[in-house]
Amino acid sequence: MIAKKFNKTKPVNIINVVVLLFLFYFIPILLGDSMEFSWGFVFQKIVFFCWLVLFLLLFKFILKKNKLTKDNAYALLLAVLILGCFPKSIFANSIVFSNLILLLSYRKIYSLRSGVNTNMKIFDAAFWIGIATLIYSWSIFYLLLIYIGIVIYQKVSFKNLLIPIIGFVTPLFIYFSYEFYFNNLTVFFNRFKYAINLDFSPYNFSKFIIPILFLVIILVWAIVKVTPKIVSISNNLKFSWNTILNHLLISILIIGLSPVKNGSEFFYLVFPSAIIIANFVQNSKSSIFKNVLLYLFLIIAVSIYFL
């Protein structure tokens, strides 16, 4: 059964997750009407798929390094299944690359709990968010996550509150200088156009309603069920759990305000959602429940292509 199979972080499970991602990525390409075969096209898709695999490997590294889940592959599997539920997210170049860069920031934010090299970690986190913002401007909201992390991990000081601003501005200043030198400042300023879109009518289709409703129900259920246990029992995880919950809220805010409403914006939910639901699954004592939940995710991810 699927729950038992991914109960441990084994190399074969990582390979299985990558194969599943491969299927979610290449089947829509093969079924697409506009596909024109060429070696250049194939090479481009393979390279982009490698970036998605790198995203998974970085995700796995952050999970293990910061002990955000137990020693299992549930979070990796759920990350791919959530991407499968929103297939547009896999093909949105700017969103994929911004999330890849944001992982480097999350790595620093969640490691603030160790208390080692705090100033450098805060600077690095803000620096990577600055780069991610240049790729996709709405990534700027994750600056809030740094300050939330500073408060939750009890690292509040004047210096630590100032460092994120310096770290964030540094890549922006470098890029500004580059465009200024070549007299292309319009290109720089165009990256910071925040056109808020509160029209959710594009979601009024079954291919969006079903996965969104299912994901919301499972997330709420997981948070209500798992939070009291973590807060009362685990001193090590409870600070990270509070950060993850705030991370989820910021991601929801970005999705709500984003001008893009085609499903690709749900990529920002992958990191916090996969971790929250993975903790829900691993803490469940019912193997039947685990299997049903994971199979439902898989069924929805597959059925999306037929809706």
Portion in helices = over 70%
Question: Rg, please?
Answer: 20 Å
| N-C termini distance | 27 Å
SS content category: mainly alpha
Short description:
The protein is an all-alpha fold and 307 residues long. The protein contains 13 helices and no strands. The mean pLDDT is 93.
How would you sum up this structure, described in words?
Helix 3 (39-66) packs parallel to helix 5 (93-110), helix 7 packs antiparallel against helix 8 and helix 11 (235-257) packs across helix 12 (270-283). This protein is globular. It has one domain (2-306). It has helices at 2-5, 11-31, 39-66, 74-85, 93-110, 118-135, 143-152, 158-181, 185-190, 206-233, 235-257, 270-283, 287-303. The two termini are 27 Å apart. The chain is an all-alpha fold and 307 residues long.
Keywords:
307 residues; mainly alpha; 13 helices; 73% helix; globular
How would the blueprint of this fold be written?
Blueprint: H1 2-5, H2 11-31, H3 39-66, H4 74-85, H5 93-110, H6 118-135, H7 143-152, H8 158-181, H9 185-190, H10 206-233, H11 235-257, H12 270-283, H13 287-303
Helix pairs in contact: 2-3, 2-4, 3-4, 3-5, 4-12, 4-13, 5-6, 6-8, 7-8, 7-11, 10-11, 10-12, 10-13, 11-12
